[in-house]
Design brief:
With 173 residues, this protein is mainly α. The protein starts with a helix and ends in a 30-residue tail after the last helix. It has one domain. The chain has helices at residues 5-42, 45-79, 89-95, 98-143.
């Protein structure tokens, strides 16, 4: 039995709701990345722990939405006589009436913009965390005299500082 146009429209409406949920989820992820960078810079460990716990809880929401999207995609692909891995939003909008195609297109553009923002913010956050780890490593190396021979440090004037072989901390095990 062939699905009717009304059934296809209903599935597209369900897909639009799922896409709206994706948009909200990505916006929350962008907000979380902003907060994460801010809390790392402020070194607010307590708030950082709370934020990370909230992120863990919300990860399930993204997974549930992903499963819904895949289910709807499969159903739409069957209704449109194509494979699910071939069905894309750009293909779907070309098969829909103008008003529905415009809604799908608008969601698609929003998702493209948001995922690009998310990619950039993720890279910024990763670079910040990586730089913090590098600075912490350098600090620990200098405090405990774990520096390698080729490490160069600079004084406040920007000239290479004289490296002495004395450490700030004397450790005895």
């Amino acid at each position: 039995m062939r699905p009717t146009t009304a059934e296809i429209r209903n599935k597209v409406d369900e897909l639009l709701v799922v896409l709206d949920n994706d948009i909200q989820y990505i916006n929350r992820s962008l907000s979380h990345l902003d907060q994460l960078r801010s809390l790392v810079i402020k070194r607010d460990h307590e708030e950082l722990g709370i934020l990370l716990e909230n992120i863990r809880k919300e990860a399930d929401i993204g997974t549930v939405n992903e499963l819904k999207r895949q289910s709807i995609r499969k159903q739409l692909a069957e209704a449109l006589d194509c494979r699910a891995d071939q069905l894309r939003l750009s293909m779907l909008k070309s098969l829909l009436p103008k008003e529905m195609a415009a809604q799908v297109s608008r969601r698609r553009e929003q998702l493209l913009d948001l995922t690009e923002q998310l990619r950039r913010q993720y890279q910024s956050t990763a670079m910040l965390v990586s730089e913090c780890a590098r600075l912490n490593r350098m600090l620990l190396d200098s405090v405990f005299n774990l520096r390698t021979a080729d490490a160069v440090t600079y004084n406040a004037n920007g000239t290479p500082a004289r490296q002495t072989d004395t450490a700030f901390v004397n450790l005895h095990f």
